[in-house]
């Protein structure tokens, strides 16, 4: 079963692969060899999930995407004050290779342009250029989650043609920004840009920034968290050069591009994006890379100033139908089947803000538990809000499961009208049949149980009607003994929705259902009603009140037309005087029934962790 996130990325890749705009960079001769049809995209969440499409394992050089990571390393090796004394953080509106220095001081405007990046290379700790390069490679490798290496061919090509960058290095030395000969520093800059990566690497490196410097795939620290905010800040304002303002306005994520066709984008706390496509626009940014990030931002509501903080604990509670059953009381055979159902029925109770990143956790958990899954309930009582991207993921999850013959049911979702509107728009004429939403998770569980039991019980196995002889309360009695009890029973009929027991009423009888179903409900403090039990033919209820004579504590209503028998307390006591053994058997059966309810409650306490 394929994740809807992966499906979406594949569709996006297919659509944007048709773009033929832009041209491969040629000012570095080796880059001109790139195939303009190479195209990969990768989304990595801070939970460590990796979703990819296209040429995500094709190697290319990192180029200017190295700049934010070297900036972070320079901050670690020095301090913010020392780094700021050498390089500013102001956007320039200039191209990446602009010679943009402050008048008088010669300080580069920011570390994302070449001048600032060369200055940062000069601040990496290490007694020799080789040590500095090793530290850069080590840092990059931690961010990518694998060992990265230098592309010697591209490095030589850059070194042979990088005269402008050498000139920038000499200007920096002239103004005292570099405290050593400029050529070794510039050479180190060429090498950091020539590190070989893949699109998948970029996605993980971006997610490492999103995860405050901890690689979400390996779980290992890669950059010190206190400096990640500084890195992301200059990426947001300066990372896309003279397109930075429009990028932040439209797409709304800190980002960095490279002339080999790479782009990274970061949504702090949620995910990182890596894109690779060599054709560039006039500003030196990947054409498809920009289109991918724009589509993802709009489709998944990833704009930095529009997305609420994700809640990592979105799955508040999770259980199967074998662990917790609905309150509908069923015959022993049906209950035995349900307890053996394993993972066929599963309920996920969600909480917090439902956005792309939190719903991705839900989708991943559901798909990870799909073995044996037939019916899924998503309980949204504790969900605070839901956005369109989350609605889309839940819709796509439902479609994926439906294609496998599985169902999705929602419960307690009325406070999230956006979900209903989205499902109605997407499902169209299928909405009434395919969108199942119940006001109580208990009802949703019952619907799933009914579907699962269909075909697994013999005809009439659900007990659509029962004779007196088959009442559960009469187990262990002979036919003659049942006839004795029958003489004490009072027949009674109720119409659908008629109240059978009022709250606070005197408890003077036990009810034995012959036909129809009855539901016990309790009014909660907030005015809602909670189902405590649903009783089917052959079952009894009211025995606790009859035995201890306490006032009725809940309302009993006929869910359907009901036919039943009443055994009143006075008759029960009279039966004990004339036929004590029959009364003992009835008491034993009452105790067994209550024990089953107690065991059910105990299982639920263990699952719900009250």
* Name given to the CATH homologous superfamily of the largest domain: DD-peptidase/beta-lactamase superfamily
Query: Which runs of at least 5 residues are low in confidence (pLDDT < 50)?
Result: none
CA radius of gyration is: 34 Å
CATH class of the largest domain, named: Alpha Beta
Structural class: alpha+beta
Total helix count? 22
Compute the average pLDDT. Answer: 91
- What does the main sheet amount to? 5 strands, antiparallel
Number of domains as seen in the coordinates: 3
Q: Indicate the CATH architecture of the largest domain.
A: 3-Layer(aba) Sandwich
Our estimate of the beta-strand percent is 15-25%
Within the CATH hierarchy, at the fold level, what is the topology of the largest domain? Beta-lactamase
**N-end to C-end Cα span:** 35 Å
Helical residue percent band = 40-55%
Number of E-state strands: 21
The rough form would be described as: elongated
For the biggest β-sheet, the strand order reads 2-1-8-7-6
Give a brief description.
With 610 residues, the chain is α+β, with helices and mostly antiparallel strands. It has a five-stranded antiparallel sheet with strand order 2-1-8-7-6. Strands 9-10-11-12-13 form a five-stranded mixed sheet, sandwiched between helices. A four-stranded antiparallel sheet has the order 14-21-16-19. Helix 5 runs parallel beside helix 8, helix 14 (356-368) runs parallel beside helix 15 and helix 21 crosses helix 22.
